[in-house]
Amino acid sequence: MLDSSGSTPCVQWPMKGEISLDLTEGSWTAGGGMTFTRVSDGHSLRFTGAHGDLARRSMSVDAAVGDGAARSVDLSTYELDMTKMTVTMPSLNSPGSVEGKPFDTMLTQDGAAVFSRAFGASPVAPGDSVATVAGRVDVVPALG
User: Fold this and answer.
1) How far does the chain reach from its first CA to its final CA, in angstroms?
2) pLDDT of residue 71
3) Sequence ranges of the domains in the chain
4) Distance between CA atoms of 127 and 106, rounded to whole angstroms?
5) What pTM does this model have?
6) Which is it for strands 44-53 and 26-30: parallel, antiparallel or unpaired?
7) What would the pLDDT profile of 102-130 be if each residue is shown by its tens digit?
8) Beta strand 44-53 with 58-65: parallel, antiparallel or unpaired?
């Protein structure tokens, strides 16, 4: 999806969670959200409350079509290519980090259905890339 300047939009959501440093388990929750609005008729779709599950490699969101109530939807899945991940272990003097180079997320059937409810069709087919994600998370070791 491109904006009017021809560049790819970037969305940044503050995140909290607990993850294993081998990235096989844990979860995260993100604040913020995004709204898609079709200019021609004002139809809209709002995503908030993003939640990720590392074991399932999935992301769910609270999705609201138009002025309707938000409901949880499994939006996308992903595979992690560990060659695109850098894990820095925390020390007493500095937090560690997990940094991921860009990777694609794949739209689920439920994700395509919520786009179809809002706009009559999904922007991509289930199983196709719906977004490219990259990020960095500071890691603080659990105490106790």
Assistant:
1) 45
2) 96
3) 22-139
4) 5
5) 0.81
6) antiparallel
7) 999 999 999 999 999 999 999 999 999 99
8) antiparallel
